[in-house]
Amino acid sequence: MENEAYGPRIQxxxxxxxxxxxxAFFTLAPPSMRYLTGFTGEEGYLLVVQGGVHLxxxxxxxxxxxxxxxxxxxxxxxxxxxxSVAELLVAGHTHWLGFEKERxxxxxxxxxxxxxxxxxxxxxxxxxxxxxxVKDAHELDMMRAAGRCADKAFSAMIRxxxxxxxxxxxxxxxxxxxxxxxxxxTSFATIVxxxxxxxxxxxIASSKVIEHGDVVVxxxxxxxNGYMSDCTRTVAxxxxxxxxxxxxxxxxxxxxxxxxxxxxxxxxxxxxxxxRNKLKEHGLAQYFTxxxxxxxxxxxxxxxxxxxxxxxxxxAGEVVTCEPGVYLPGRYGMRVEDxxxxxxxxxxxxxxxxxxxxxx
Length: 360
Ligand code: ZN
Ligand code: ZN
Prior knowledge:
By secondary structure, this protein is of the alpha+beta class. It has two domains: about 5-130, Creatine Amidinohydrolase, Chain A, domain 1 (3-Layer(aba) Sandwich); about 135-350, Creatine Amidinohydrolase. It has ten helices and 19 strands. α7 crosses α8 (about 165-180) and α9 packs antiparallel against α10. The longest helix has 22 residues, at about 135-160.
């Protein structure tokens, strides 16, 4: 992205800093650093003050940062990063430093306190995450591209999936197809749960052999240019008994209902409630054991949540998942998940994959 795109983000952060009564803001979270500067390294320290932006990096990353964000003051530190942060704060006569209480470890906070005794460290929450919820046009294009890449990889994998393969082989095949389709990696460890293992909502792929007749839950995502995709499909190898087909039809109904309620202004909790009530009509609510959805972007799980534990109202430009599941312990599991862009009057899906249960 062009450098000028980051200016408005820094400016907005500086406004949020002023509102939070902090003179400087410190983050070491790679997704936040990437969002604010374009720096894609996996380790570094970002200090934003009202007058400038400093990236404090070790020698592995300085050249990269100078290329990726030449408008940022890149400082190469030797020894400990806290010394560079302290020097900048002292030079700027800064006393109030905001930091992300959910991102920094206890040890790091202690080290900073020790290195800068005259600075008051102010715990903050959601300073950057709050900005990242609503994506700009460029980010939405990146999310669409990640979705297309994931669709392509899954379609290529599914043509090769057959009984006798292990879950690990299916995961490896899918991840290979992701790379071939242009992904830099996965957004999380690919979940392939077949037969009774499908009832483990987040059981990652194992060495279990997929049998003819198995119902298989595949939850997968690509990381393309830092933006994540998230999608789940459930497929069955071979004809299925009536109760499995029926349960899947009810699950699809519930997911459709959830999707139909997504729009700007909708209460995230009420969508979760509606889907739960729909499953309850069929006696399945107790088998849906997690929240309905979550935000996706530079991280696989970000704000907002679609669950019972939120008061959030959806906003246009957010990207959220809708992923009800039914998990019957010892038998099988099913989940269907789409990631969608919230719009003023509905949503735009980031995936076009079929939801047909039984593979041809
Ligand atoms: Zn997922
Ligand atoms: Zn998800």
